[in-house]
Specification:
alpha/beta, six-stranded mixed β-sheet, 8 helices, 29% helix
Length: 339
């Protein structure tokens, strides 16, 4: 059997990134289809050295593909993922629609690869929240070695996590401020240029935002239900790249030096941690990279067995598209898909 796949939401930022990464990693697909809404039908997108013409997802015959990578939003996924699965394809979904469904695996391949075998229940696999993904890659080896009781983290999330309109708004507002134009928020609740906004997604009854809640419940599902996590999620005027300041309370002692050595030998991670001007990674330097970067590893003396980390990744790549492609590779390597 020759593997055929479709990218649903191919004209969006994540959809375009998925196509680029599929080509970069030489994913063994005989044929790749680019799908989008009817208004984007005919739009051309790049796939390596090829150009694909977008087809209308509503009229596409999903029975002719084995795999669909979706990045079209939660409402679209809720409506379409079960139909696609019923037609015979496996769905890897980037939205939040299926993440808390007990019959849908929530996968970070470096962290819980065995969970992917549970895809058969609904033939849907969920990609976690962007900040959760990079945090899990960094926490997994530490949890395996020393046990994590509690995590307190602050995220610094780029505007690309809110889509193309948000990126355009940062660009427009930044230009406007320099020429004294009015700054009118649209994609965000407040001005994003030269500002930070401690508000991502809607507020919940306990005062947390839904973005913060996602990190809590997804960490428990992916890594360990006993871990307590508290997050403050902040939108910052950066185009691409999410950062997290994570403070851990461990079951057992783990020195900063031991943590660095452990993280250096762990999959998906690069440690850049020196006490000089070039000794840490910022979001700009993560753009276009596959790795999750860890810097500023320190012992936290304010709690017993405390450890602090600075974690950075390209949110369009490891935080979304790359993780989805890695899930597809996992399915392939475990024999759930045949190339």
């Amino acid at each position: 059997m020759s593997l055929k796949l479709a990218v649903f939401g191919a004209t969006g930022a994540v959809g375009k990134e998925i196509l680029e990464i599929l080509a970069e990693r030489l994913f063994p697909a005989e044929e790749v289809f680019a799908l989008a809404s009817r208004k984007s039908m005919g739009v051309e997108v790049s796939y390596g050295e090829k150009t694909l013409t977008c087809k209308d997802a509503e009229t596409f015959d999903f029975s002719k593909v084995d795999l669909v990578l979706m990045s079209a939003g939660g409402d679209v996924s809720k409506a379409w993922a079960p139909k696609i699965a019923e037609a015979g394809a496996v769905v890897i979904d980037n939205s939040s629609a299926w993440r808390t469904d007990p019959d849908v695996p929530l996968i970070v391949p470096e962290v819980n690869p065995d969970a992917v075998d549970g895809f058969a229940a609904k033939k849907i696999i969920a990609n976690p929240n962007c900040s959760t993904i990079q945090l899990m890659v960094a926490l997994k080896p530490i949890h395996d070695r020393a046990g994590i009781k509690r995590v307190s983290c602050a995220t610094y999330q780029s505007v690309s996590g809110a889509g193309q309109a948000a990126m355009d708004e940062l660009w427009t507002q930044t230009k406007g401020i320099y020429v004294n134009d009015s700054v009118d928020p649209n994609a965000f609740t407040k001005q994003i240029a030269f500002n930070v906004i401690p508000h991502i997604d809607v507020f919940m009854e306990d005062g947390a935002t839904k973005e913060e809640w996602k990190m809590v419940v997804e960490t428990k599902k992916i890594l360990d239900p006993s871990i307590k996590l508290f997050a403050t999620c902040v939108r910052v005027p950066v185009f691409v790249g999410h950062s997290i300041a994570a403070h851990l309370e461990l079951d057992n002692e783990l020195s900063a030096d031991e943590a660095r050595d452990l993280l250096r030998s762990s999959p998906g991670l690069l440690v850049v941690d020196k006490q000089d001007d070039e000794g840490y990674v910022t979001p700009v330097e993560s753009v276009g990279e596959f790795a999750t970067f860890v810097s500023r590893v320190r012992e936290d003396p304010t709690v017993e067995n405390g450890l602090a980390l600075w974690v950075v990744a390209d949110n369009l790549r490891k935080g979304a598209a790359l993780n989805a492609v890695q899930i597809a590779e996992l399915l392939l390597n475990r024999g759930h898909l045949k190339a």
